[in-house]
Amino acid sequence: MRITRRHLLAAATSALAPPALAQGFPDRPVRLVVPFGPGGGTDNLVRLIEPHVRAVLGQPLVIENRAGAGGTIGTEMVARAAPDGTTLLAVDSSFAINPSLFPRLPYDPVKDFTPVTLLASGPVVLLAHPSLPATTLGEIVAMAKAQPGKLSYASGGNGASTHLAGELLKLVAGIDLVHVPYRGTGPATTDVVAGHVPLMFNGISAARPHVDSGRLRAIAVTGDSRAPALPDVPTFAEAGLPDVTASTFWGILAPAGVPEASLARLAAAFRAGVAHPEIQERLRALGFTPISDPAASYAENLRSETEKWARVVRTANVKLD
Asked: Which residues contact 302 (CB under 8 A, 6 or more apart)?
């Protein structure tokens, strides 16, 4: 067959098609599903960075809250979405915890998702009501050992990260604390502030107003270093229990099968949002630690966090209601 100019032009056009498509992505708004209600840590984080992500993508980032069943409802919706990069999922550490809590998840957390990027981490803080005589972690552990089953701690519910942080403390310290679950972290905080329950774990952004006012005492924070928002509070490592590693991690996931070029563009946009100097300052003030790691690091983080919480759930025999 004689090769004509038309054949050469057609071949060149075909070869250039995939990059052209990648460069044109996204060509419509990107939906970001938050599998929790408005006002929580995940929702606050993505709404904070949304303007900068939108500026890089050149398309609106539409945040949609789909709460329910510990985050599994919104998560399943994204798992079933078309893998074109225009439907994403924002998650916290519950994504790594849920496989151990729900025996029959409606999705496969490994096969049905592709990590886009890790956005931030956030320490949790052990809080005590001021009426508790013990004022340090060492004193609380000593009190719990002297009176097994007498001290209690509140949480946002069975299987919540605030519950499992308490179970991890019990395992590491070898103490017996009574778990008091509530329907949400807000009601749990209210009762601890009122003195009905002496202890609880909470995120720094939610805990700080009560600590600053003196209604609660901050005992120790998770993480490798002290939290800028609570600089006078020691880490668990400084307080003698370095294996209490219960920090929360936030990241972005896409349905499995999204083209690599689209994933790269999405990751760059979210990393730019987290890296903005103004955003970094605001995140740290709220108790977040900006990370902006690549997808490979996020995949490893999910693997290790899933294994860690599986051990805690199994050893503590955590059961959902």
From this structure: 95, 96, 109, 115, 251
Burial 150-170 (b: 16+ CB within 10 A, else e): ebbbbbbbbbbbbbbbbbbbb
Please tell me the pTM assigned to this model. Answer: 0.81
Spatial separation of the C-alpha atoms in residues 310 and 98, rounded to whole Å? 9
Query: Which one, of 229, 222, 237, lies nearest residue 162 by Cα?
Result: 222
| Measured distance CA(162)–CA(153) in Å, rounded | 10
Q: Give pLDDT tens digits for 127-136.
A: 999 999 999 9
Q: What is the mean pLDDT of residues 141-154?
A: 96
Could you tell me how far CA 49 lies from the centroid of its own chain?
15
Please give the helix or strand (H or E) that residue 187 lies within, else none.
helix 185-193
- In angstroms, the first-to-last Cα distance of the chain is 72
The answer to whether the beta carbons of residues 152 and 229 sit under 8 Å apart is no
CA angle 240–148–165, rounded 5-degree value: 50
Whether the CB-CB separation of 161 and 245 falls below 8 Å is answered with: no
